[in-house]
Task: structure prediction
Amino acid sequence: MDLQSAQIRAIDAVDKLGPDLVQLTQEMVRIPTETHPPTGDEGPGQEHLASYLTGRFGWKVDSFLPIEVPGIEQHPGWWPGLDYTNRPNVVAHRRGVGGGRSLILNGHIDVVPAGPAGQWKYAPYGGDLVDGRIYGRGSVDMKGGIASMIYAVRAIELAGIRLKGDVIVESVVNEELGGYNGTLACCVRGYQADAAIVTEATECQIMPAHKGGQGLRLRVPGRSAHANMWWRGVSALDKALELKGVLADFEAERTAETRHNPYFSDPERFPLPALVNTVWSLKAGDPELMSPPEEAVLDFWCDALPGEDLDTVIDRLEARLNAAADADLFLRTNRPRLERQTIMRPFYPTSIPLDHPIVATLAASYRTVVDSKPDIVGFSAVCDAMIFNLHSPTPAVIFGPGDLSLGHGADEYIEVEQLVRASKILACAIVEWCGVA
Result:
């Protein structure tokens, strides 16, 4: 069977399996698999998926806790302090006949908490199918990606296509909120390949790079005083807002210097290539004291892009904040403190070349299915591709269904059309990459 014939058969098989692809996505969404560091609720979802793969497809699966992998806690990529009770990875290794390239398909099953149910029009874990959309927490981030990659492999099998190379399907735990030990455990257990595709939501565009960054906390001091003698105190809130201006200035500087990064240069897609002024939490004062706040605490994120050193970027930011403190009469002797948040690991930007063979394979497969040219750009977040590119010999690219901006919000959803399209493109890519026997 030649490549073109095999791809046509695989595409037809995905079409026939479309209802099953939708059903699996709904089933996965209906099982809450929230992460709650240091623990998580992935167990029931992974048990269902393992049962699905063995019972429905007859696949053999390897189900294991990350902590069970020998030597994992001594690995330099391990992030400590997490509990993996009833949080197994699920891996299916589909072996080819030999002589082809191998491929890993990777996705995480954990999701962020749903938040207040009153903010949702549709039940957070209902998996409702409405007007071609599947609603629910994790539908786009990233259970739709897992379902698409599973049914890409299944379509190839049902189409009678014998692959030369191996395909390894990984559903991992502990990606959200920065664990990443699930994918690391797969790598250390010995699951390696000639390339990996992490099926995060990219709207079926091809992303051979991702950002890095660090969650930071800025503690700004003040001085209390009676409310009727406010001038004798110093408001930490006012000082914090002044220092927030430093974040904005540094972000403008970073925008200028990163504008031509090869992965993040598109000004429409990335108006701010490297974020800094991203304060998502500000706490100051006590409503019962009626006094200038004695401390203000700002939580924010600082980006680093491929080709940059994360620590250097943060050191530069800290120098800017220290310079601003030196110029302030109060802060000169009452120093603000910049801290690295410890709930998440530091994230290092990684990339593979724009002309890497797995990128070319995905691009050709996209053209086969969509009959147009895909965008090849950077991923605006961080994902498990970091683990592959830093801690294994397997180069990773990011590609999958869904709009990432919908993740983590109320009424998260994924388009069925995107699920099917991604599965077709993945099936074509697998056939080309692994080779047809």
User: Anything to note?
Assistant: The chain has a mean pLDDT of 97.
